[in-house]
Amino acid sequence: MARRLPTIGDVARAASVSRQTVSNVLNSPEIVRAQTRARVEAAIAELGYRPHAAARRLRTRRASTIAVRLDPFVGGISGAVLDRFLHALTERAEAKGLSVMLYTATDAADEIRQFRRLVDGAVVDAFVLAATYYGDPRTEWLIEHGQPFVTFGRPWGIADLSDPLHFWVDVDGRAGVRDAVARLRETGAQQIGFLGWPAGSGTGDERRAGWAAALRESGIGDSELVRLTVESEDGVAEARAATRKLLAQASDLDAIIAASDTLALGVLIETAGALPVVGFDNTPVAEAIGFSSIDQRVDEVAAAALELLDLVGHAEAGGPGGHRLIAPDVIMRAQGPALGLVG
Amino acid sequence: MARRLPTIGDVARAASVSRQTVSNVLNSPEIVRAQTRARVEAAIAELGYRPHAAARRLRTRRASTIAVRLDPFVGGISGAVLDRFLHALTERAEAKGLSVMLYTATDAADEIRQFRRLVDGAVVDAFVLAATYYGDPRTEWLIEHGQPFVTFGRPWGIADLSDPLHFWVDVDGRAGVRDAVARLRETGAQQIGFLGWPAGSGTGDERRAGWAAALRESGIGDSELVRLTVESEDGVAEARAATRKLLAQASDLDAIIAASDTLALGVLIETAGALPVVGFDNTPVAEAIGFSSIDQRVDEVAAAALELLDLVGHAEAGGPGGHRLIAPDVIMRAQGPALGLVG
């Protein structure tokens, strides 16, 4: 087996510093103490570390392949957004001469085993990861091993969102929900509630924050915010129960924004369509039944992911950084009068 | 460039016979006239034609890759079944050490260009095609060029469904709809209508045929069958209009079977949930809203497709043949009372 190329982790260990410090030396040397910088630079020279060796390989190979994880089909309404992203990515990749290779994984540890297999087999040249989360060990591994990658999803929990080692594209759910509040107000709604996921998911918390920010701007206080929102797991039955709870504590609601189309469907069924609702993801269900929803514009997300892959390894210290935050679209639909559907 | 390997088409041209005749000589020589057989065998020997050279390559290569076409996301409810199939195929392929590579194509001619690119680049070892149709030129090309493939979808319009050169797996939509009629009768329904796609699509015609066969068995005549069915394009609005037409000509209906969940949703909205409906594909929408639907069991389809890929090139004359017809599941759900949803 060929000798393993040194990683950023090897440099960090040799210099007795953190990986972040090595990253800083490479990208923002002015913020690192001179003594530390000298130690890191010595370790880099000694080990022969080359940042993004694999990124250069990506640009020089003629037939390039991107690996994308495809999860088991889990049912439900909202999961379709990642399928839509895959469709858009595959089409746009092909237009750039890139192919998409799929892999599966049962958990993060298994996914890292898959990274190893794909990298060792020289089968793929870059990774596109979706659904990042707090403390995601996958991006850590890819950075450590100099593999080019882009994530659909920001690096949750990392203070420096412009880390030049982590290129990402994400949808600004906070801005989307804020816009939805404004659009509902244009239709005359005054009391606007929020049906969200339990706290702790990055995307769900951002969506709730957009709603809270819009309400605070119009002078609504914290205790009132608490009254106007409830949490629910992402299922139709759970959303119906949560809607009953929400209406019990806030019978004056004019409209509800939900963190997903699944939750929105629960609101719709529970209220017999009487209360305007805005979901999230603009799924085929929202289109077919006819209710408002926030569209993630996955086609733009795919385009941005591929643009960023071109840039991996080219990031300049102090440059614009390798990330894109896409503003979603609020798709308003006229919700018909109650007509009777199911119980 | 390497000399092109002779194809079955080259043999057919050299012997002045059809491709089917060459296939027959290879697989069912007893049905071919002795004189013709001799001419074909001479051409095979002269050209050095080896059937399924690529199939043998598939079995000897260690890292094998299957190509699957991924179409642009078109919205709608029913398209999700091919995404579900892709998820199942990717998982099961990986368990067998196979990877899935995606490609896109704008039409059949473009798809054949993609075949050529993938074959010339030695990028993939076999193809899994979905959505076969009458006069499908893609399978013709793959057979002609000795490329191992399996289709999800039978070879529509080909009389010999057990052609040893075309391995396929399909879902028995006719049996599924027949079962649905029986299940609806168990619930007390007597007059069961059918909302189908316009005639001419293989899958749609099979589904309608299952309904018609079940009704004929209980003594219902042809003119009555005409009264109990209408056609609709696959959209919710179109299905609502078609439902009005169907109920105008058959106000005595107890239940409706629809060729898709999209059509079923149109029935459901138009009838305010009052009439039991059975859709097709058991989509997330059917599950979330709660109506009956026929499930294609795509996981079994994926398993069968991979089993068949193992067999490509091993088909024996007079053997069991390389195809599987999967019986779908009728998922019956209690449709709640009208509760009011949208207009």
UniProtKB/TrEMBL annotation, chains A, B:
Keyword Kinase included in the entry's annotation: no
Alphabetical list of SMART domains matching this protein: HTH_LACI
PROSITE patterns, per database record: HTH_LACI_1 (PS00356), HTH_LACI_2 (PS50932)
Entry-linked Pfam families: LacI (PF00356), Peripla_BP_1 (PF00532)
GO molecular function per UniProt: DNA binding
Keywords: DNA-binding, Transcription, Transcription regulation
Keyword DNA-binding appears in the UniProt entry: yes
Domain HTH lacI-type: 6-60
Full protein name: LacI family DNA-binding transcriptional regulator
